[in-house]
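thought: fold this chain, then report.
action: predict
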Amino acid sequence: MKIIIDGYNLIWAVPELRKKVLNEQREINLAEGRKGLLHLLDLYQGGHPKLEITAVFDAKEEIFSYPSSSSKIKVLYSNGETADSLIKRIVEDEKNPKETLVVTSDNELKGRVKEKGAQVIGSLSFLKRISPPKKRIYHKELTGQQENLIKEELKRAYKIE
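observation:
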């Protein structure tokens, strides 16, 4: 199966990746977002080596590069056209578009590639699918009374006066 990813769409849709792009001064660092995304995709593909994953970004190739030589992720830059139109053209050129999954939350692009026979998944749904489950630890603030009860119990248990 082939997976084609609308790169910046996925980056902006995913809070963890969006944080990499926007720093505290609200300056944009697209390279960090791309690196974060491609790292996630590398990890996912490591467990699914038969998948052909392509990330498509709006830009010229010579502007950005992904330094991982071991990566099997194909990175394409739209170079004069939009990433959406490049993704649509890739799907149109597929021999069997039903074996292609496009990752985007862009409704217009979703409709265009579905017309060509491709499968579509939203960016957040895709991220949930490829991300390992997170362990959640819930911390509840204690009231003063609860804190005092715990202290008293510890004093009693350890015979502290």
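thought: worth noting. The longest helix spans residues 30-47.
final: tokens above.
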